[in-house]
Write a structure and sequence with these properties.
The complex is a heterodimer of chains A (288) and B (778). By secondary structure, chain A is mainly beta. Chain A contains 6 helices and 18 strands. Chain B has 6 helices and 49 strands. Classes of the chains: A mainly beta (288), B mainly beta (778). Chain B: One of its GO terms (cellular component) is cell outer membrane.
């Protein structure tokens, strides 16, 4: 799709002229930004920073280290998350899948309360296979396609990430293409938008209505390190909050704004930005 | 006795009947019909003129075909005075004994006389009737005078993005304008990605925009009717023709006649492709990695045929075509894009005089708009070409309309008619990795019954009452919508008049388009998921003639509410067509509210003429799914919009003109913050829709014309400059945080916000040369 957008505007761009004049607009206050994960198999984590203004200068160091972060279970019990490193908060507590949780964050930029969130069930993934993938939108010859079958009770929202481990750290790789049938079912490329951004592909619930789902991802073998050609595929069942946040967070290029109204950011907090979302992740390793 | 009485009774009835028949025949014999055609002596073009007789207080008018008719008593002297603002008055006196058909030729006033008499564009009563001569005295964009762009210089009519042709009339959107060329619908009026409209000014006889007070014969759109009429062929013996050559395009027009027919043929084409040849050669020889090509053409043709004195037939066809190709080399890949779009129109019209003074007007029209977009990608190592993306759409319309006009008496006239239309929409999407996706052709039947009554209550008060009943059938859904309309005119004095009007309009088809001038029109008919849109409008104002400056001042206010509008939902745009049936994904049941005050001032002083228009308006939208249901500013809410046009006829040869436009910047969705996304990258996030406004828009265009005659042929040079002081009027802004450095340990980066915007019309000179193809008559 991108090639058409680019080429489409070739004439206009040639005729166009730039300007750097500013405009009058609404001044929005600095607000906190929270990304908090509620994982089935690990402790609760939250990363807290604040937004930067849209005029003037700013720095990347915007972590908030003096926040008060409280996990609320079923509206009653509460657990305090402690600061572990710059902007990182953790609670030594593994959440219960049967409970509903919300998050309370107090910062000097304002206080935030999330909606209630549950942890979804872990996805079940069946066998996989590999095959060359040469026919397609991109005609690279070194692409492989791998397919998995998600079985059993399908999660409402599924997030897919592909990568490899290097120095004990997960390195995501660009997902070149997703099974076409899935893209069509998902409503025209909404899945691939996310792939371009964070190497994460989200699937909406409409895509997951059948009894089982075949997911195929094409990737470039050459990006994997020679010594460690083990592909790690992360299947995460997510709560809707995570999906909605991802679906709305698009990095618009200049020309996009000529054609498309930008999405306002989604948040399940009553103030600020970010999400508090439930995850249940399954890792599959593929030896190439 | 009874029988006798019975017989007597019968004979009495028979006698009465005979007496009545004879007297009626005698009476009938005294009433004769005077009718005729008025045309310009030099060009044979029909003239809409006023007619006065020695027994009529009120003037009659000839229609757009120059036709008129009225009743008269046989053997009674008739003094008929025919006048038009741009022609010399003519008086005919004779004693008609039976039905009479007249052909009246009026002599056009010379240029200086025209200037002196100021043949004006008619503005007021919620409409603008364009004086085509005025159109020619406005600096043209890219050498092409453009009727749609000229309309935007009048109050209440605005253009969207700079350079585009879509009209925004009283807060409406371009799809809410019914564009008619000889009664046939034009779905997309854009050439050259919107920089030129499809109306070739050389082939246009007249053009009128109705912003309110819509005659009930028009329906199917909410905001305006743009009624354009193609030129008729020359009815004089002289053949006519002219050729105009500009920097980017040329056009030619020819007209002539036969015994009972006349013809007009006009063509226009751009040769931008010639200027692009060097770049195409450089691309072929790998000196550059991208290139493009563009070609555009349009053809107007019209034939008039008059088989008898009382009937006239016209047949016109119109064809436009735009062809755009671009290539981009991104080794090892090559991307190609092809976009073709165009309109095809055919129109058959009949005007006839029936018995009892009825005038019948029939029309049968066909319109088609089609575009096709195809993006191809190939690998240089692998010569196979794959279609990566293709999108096409075809929109068809067939219309049959018949109406009867009757002047019942001096005070009352009526128009009554029926219109039947059929729409057919066929959007398609295709990409190589999925099957051809056909979203299902959709069709819509539209029937309109209409009645217009014009009643002169007194010499001062006139009422125009109209009623249209529209029926829409789309798939299984049926809608019947009454559309009442009424307007009042009160002539306070010879120089001052007031008007007041109310109109209800319905629109069964909606358009999804970015308003960017791009050809990707996707029409969505009303049906199961979307109801027809409805607009209610009230308007009122006054118009005052200013004899001291040979000018006019008019002020008019309006308020309009529009229901059941549609819009793109968040995250969708015109290239989201593959997402599924449009009537399922769009935001529905939107409400538009708009109101404003329009001011128009025109004056003429010796060889100098000017007009000034100013509009203050407010335009909002409200959708459940946008901005959490809150009211927000519409995309092209121009709070203030002012246009000034100046024209100076320095001599018979030299004419100078200037147009200045000043507008509020349009609303747009501005960023509200920068946040780090979950991947740790800095990312701009945006606020509610249309939360800010672009800077003020202003532009000055200057032009000059030099007219002369050489070797018996009239010639004209036109030259000037668009955007004389090179003001960049961007239509979008983009915020890019630029990294300016890091701390010494490299753990913290520093950024500076940079806003950049794009404008498309820089300082742009133009020149064109026009020559008559045939020598002037001696």
């Amino acid at each position: 799709m991108r090639i058409s957008r680019f080429s489409f505007l070739l004439t206009l761009v040639i005729m166009a002229c730039d300007t750097n004049v500013d405009f009058d607009g609404v001044e929005y206050p600095i607000e906190p930004v929270v990304y908090a994960h509620l994982n089935a198999d690990s402790t609760v984590e939250a990363r807290i920073s604040h937004s930067a203004p849209v005029r003037g200068e700013f720095s990347s160091d915007r972590t908030i280290d003096d926040a008060r972060v409280v996990l609320i279970e079923n509206g009653e019990d509460s657990t305090l998350l402690e600061l572990t490193s710059e902007g990182q908060y953790k609670a030594n507590y593994i959440p219960n899948m049967a409970s509903q949780y919300s998050l309370w964050v107090e910062t000097s930029y304002g206080n935030m309360l999330s909606t209630s969130v549950k942890i979804p069930s872990k996805p079940k993934v069946g066998s996989s296979y590999l095959e060359p993938y040469q026919k397609g939108y991109f005609n690279y010859t070194d692409l492989l396609r791998s397919a998995w079958k998600v079985e059993g009770a399908l999660p409402q929202f599924l997030s897919l990430q592909v990568g490899y481990n290097e120095a004990n750290r997960f390195q995501p790789i660009m997902i070149t293409s997703v099974e076409e049938a899935v893209i069509s079912a998902c409503g025209g490329g909404s899945a691939s938008n996310r792939a371009n951004l964070y190497n994460v592909v989200d699937f909406k619930d409409e895509c997951l209505e059948s009894d089982s789902l075949k997911i195929a991802v094409a990737f470039n073998r050459e990006v994997l390190p020679e010594a460690n050609r083990r592909l790690i595929v992360k299947f995460a069942a997510t709560s809707q909050e995570y999906h909605d946040f991802e679906a709305n967070l698009i990095d618009y290029r200049a020309l996009d704004l000529f054609f498309e109204e930008p999405l306002p950011p989604y948040s399940n907090f009553d103030f600020g930005y970010g999400y508090f979302a439930g995850f249940n992740e399954l890792e599959v390793i593929l030896n190439l | 006795m009874l029988k006798k009485l019975y017989m007597f009774s019968w004979s009495k009835h028979i006698i009465l009947l005979l007496l009545f028949t004879v007297s009626f025949s005698l009476l009938k014999a005294q009433e004769i019909q005077i009718s005729g055609y008025i045309s310009e002596e030099e060009s044979s073009q029909p003239v809409q003129a006023a007619l006065y007789t020695n027994h009529q207080d009120e003037g009659l008018k000839s229609n757009s075909a120059g036709f008129f008719t009225f009743s008269w008593k046989a053997n009674q002297n008739l003094r008929l005075e025919v006048s038009s603002s741009s022609h010399e008055k003519k008086v005919i006196t004779f004693n008609p004994k039976s039905d009479t058909l007249l052909y009246v030729d009026l002599k056009a006033i010379t240029l200086q006389e025209v200037l002196a008499k100021a043949s004006k564009t008619q503005v007021g009563r919620s409409s603008v009737s364009m004086d085509i001569e005025k159109l020619k005295s406005i600096p043209p964009v890219m050498g092409e005078a453009d009727i749609l762009k000229t309309f935007t210089l009048f109050p209440g009519i605005a253009v969207g993005n700079e350079g585009t042709t879509g009209l925004f009339v009283r807060g409406g959107t371009p799809d809410q304008n019914l564009l008619l060329l000889d009664e046939a619908v034009i779905f997309n009026p854009s050439h050259l990605l919107g920089f030129i409209s499809v109306f070739n000014q050389n082939a246009i006889e007249s053009a009128t925009v109705y912003k309110g007070n819509f005659p009930s014969k028009y329906g199917g759109r909410l905001s305006s009717i743009v009624d354009v009429e193609m030129k008729d062929g020359s009815e004089s013996e002289e053949r006519k023709g002219s050729l105009s050559i500009g920097l980017l395009s040329s056009n030619i027009i020819l007209s002539g006649n036969g015994e009972k027919f006349s013809y007009m043929l006009s063509g226009r084409s751009t040769y931008l492709t010639l200027a692009l040849i060097p770049n195409n050669i450089r691309y072929t020889y790998r000196q550059t990695d991208n290139t493009f090509n563009y070609w555009m053409e349009d053809v107007n043709a019209k034939v008039n045929f008059q088989p008898s004195e009382d009937h006239k037939l016209t047949f016109s066809v119109y064809q436009t075509g735009d062809y755009f190709t671009s290539k981009e080399r991104d080794t090892p890949l090559t991307n190609e894009l092809h976009i073709d779009w165009g309109n095809q129109l055919a129109s058959l019209q009949h005007t006839g005089l029936l018995k009892n003074d009825f005038i019948i007007e029939n029309s049968l029209t066909y319109s088609r708009y089609k575009y096709q977009l195809e993006a191809l990608q190939s690998n240089e190592q692998n010569t196979a070409v794959d279609t990566a993306f293709a999108n096409s759409s075809a929109t068809h319309n067939v219309s049959l309309k018949s109406q009867l006009n009757k002047e019942i008496n001096k005070k009352l006239s009526l128009d009554i008619g029926l219109q039947q239309q059929y729409y057919f929409f066929n959007p398609r999407f295709y990409n190589q990795t999925s099957d051809n996706t056909d979203f299902g052709a959709q069709s819509l039947w539209e029937t309109g019954l209409f009645l217009d009554l014009k009643y002169d209550v007194s010499d001062y008060l006139k009422i125009n009452g109209g009623y249209r009943h529209s029926f829409y059938l789309s798939r299984s859904e049926f809608y019947a919508i009454p559309e009442p309309r009424i307007s009042l005119d009160y002539q306070w004095s010879s120089n001052l008049s007031f008007n007041l009007g109310f109109t209800k309009m319905a629109q069964p088809i909606h358009l999804l388009n970015s308003s960017s001038g791009l050809p990707n029109d996707n029409w969505v008919p009303a049906g199961e998921n979307i109801r027809p849109a409805i607009a209610y409008q009230i308007n009122g104002g006054f118009s005052r003639a200013l004899p001291s400056v040979n000018g006019e001042l008019s002020i008019e206010g309006y308020a309009k509410i529009m229901n059941d509008l549609i819009d793109y939902p968040y995250g969708y745009s015109f290239y989201s067509i593959a997402a599924g049936p449009l009537d399922e994904i769009v935001e529905k049941e939107g409400v538009g509210r708009t109101y404003g005050i329009e001011t128009y001032y025109e004056m003429q002083w010796e060889q100098f003429s000017s007009w000034l228009s100013y509009t203050y308006s407010v335009n909002t939208r409200q959708f459940d799914g946008i901005n959490q249901g809150e009211v927000f500013l519409a995309n092209f809410d121009r709070r203030h919009d002012m246009s000034l046009s100046l024209n100076y006829q320095a001599s018979k040869k030299w004419n100078f003109n200037a147009v200045f436009n000043l507008q509020s910047g349009r609303p747009f969705t501005a960023p509200r913050a920068i946040i780090q996304n979950p991947g740790g990258l800095e990312q701009v996030v945006y606020g509610p829709r249309n939360n800010s406004r672009l800077p003020i828009y202003h532009r000055l265009d200057l032009g000059a014309e030099y007219s002369f005659t050489k070797k018996g042929r009239d010639r004209k040079w036109s030259f000037g400059v668009i955007n004389a002081y090179n003001r960049v009027n961007p239509f979008y802004y983009h915020l890019t945080p630029k990294m300016t450095g890091s701390n010494t340990s490299g753990t913290v980066d520093f950024f500076e916000n940079q806003y950049s915007g794009k404008g498309f019309l820089p300082f742009l000179p133009y020149v064109s040369y026009q020559i008559n193809l045939f020598k002037n008559r001696k």
